[in-house]
Design a protein that fits this description.
Length: about 110
């Protein structure tokens, strides 16, 4: 997200942020979906670290692998992970999940 945030700083962490679709021309990939998937994976990792048994991904009819595959495509499109950078994308996603789990462990103390 750092790379996308650098390009579009006005679209992050602001009250009533505009929809990202407005800035993505002729692409089925939207920044809205990237944020949604990253936040969803982070939330799943956070809740798992808290010991919750219900899976937020399953509640939405998704599974982790589907989210990872979609994010990998987005990351490749935006140059965050190089073409055929599946391993690189997986590492980025694992970092998101690891940070969320770490926050949960800090939160539960």
């Amino acid at each position: 997200m750092r790379d996308i945030r650098r390009v579009h700083p006005d679209l992050f962490d602001v009250e009533d942020a505009p929809r990202f679709r407005k800035i993505v021309d002729q692409s089925s990939f939207t920044l809205d979906l990237i944020l949604y998937l990253e936040r969803l994976l982070a939330r799943a990792a956070f809740e798992k670290a808290l010991g919750k048994t219900e899976d937020v991904l399953q509640r939405r009819g998704l599974d982790r692998q589907d989210c990872v595959e979609e994010l990998t495509q987005f990351y490749e499109t935006y140059g965050i992970a190089h073409a055929q950078g599946k391993h690189q994308a997986e590492v980025l996603i694992q970092n998101i999940e690891s940070q969320a789990a770490s926050q949960a462990r800090s939160y539960s103390r």
